[in-house]
Amino acid sequence: MPNNLYYVIVKAGQDPNKTREIIGWNRIDVPEDVEAILMPSMDDDHWPPMQQDYTPKALEDGKIVSYEPPPYVTPLPMQAQNALQTVQQKATMVAAMGETFGPNMRNYVQILQSIANGSDTTQTHLPTPPENPKQ
After folding, report:
1. Which of 115, 117, 110, 113 is nearest to 125 (CA)?
2. What does pTM read for this prediction?
3. What is the DSSP code string of 76-131?
4. Predicted confidence band at 1 (pLDDT cuts at 50, 70, 90)?
5. Sign of the torsion formed by the C-alpha atoms of 59, 64, 67 and 72
6. Domain ranges for the chain
7. Span 67-109, pLDDT tens digits
C-alpha cells in the first residue's frame, strides 16, 4: 500500500506563527519502496526544462543530474523460461520426425526447469544447450 505525501501551498510572506491562508493542496501516492525528497532549490526556471528533457535523471549532492541507468538484465528464471520455449519448438520438430530427445537434451531441460521454477538458485547463467537434441 502506498504512503501518501500530503502538502498545502500557502501565500508567501505570511507569518508562520499565525493562521495562514491556503491557496492549494495536493496528495501524492508514494510507493513504499521509494523515498520522497523535498527539493527546496527547485524553481520555475529549472522545472519546465526538466519536464521536457526525457533523459534519465539522478539526485546527486542535492542536485538533479543526468544519469545512465545500468542495463537491464533479464532475471535468470525468465531466461530459463525463454530457453524452455525454444526447447518446446525443437521438441515439436523432433517429434514430427518420429524421434525423441537424447539424454543430454533431457538433462538440459531438467536444469532449465529447475532454474525457471526456482528450485535451483545456485546457477548464475544458463547451461549451453546440446548441439544436437538427439544427443
Report:
1. 115
2. 0.55
3. HHHHHHHHHHHHHHHHHHHHHTT----HHHHHHHHHHHHHHHTS----SSPPPPPS
4. low
5. positive
6. 1-36, 39-69, 71-135
7. 888 899 999 999 999 999 999 998 888 888 898 999 999 999 9
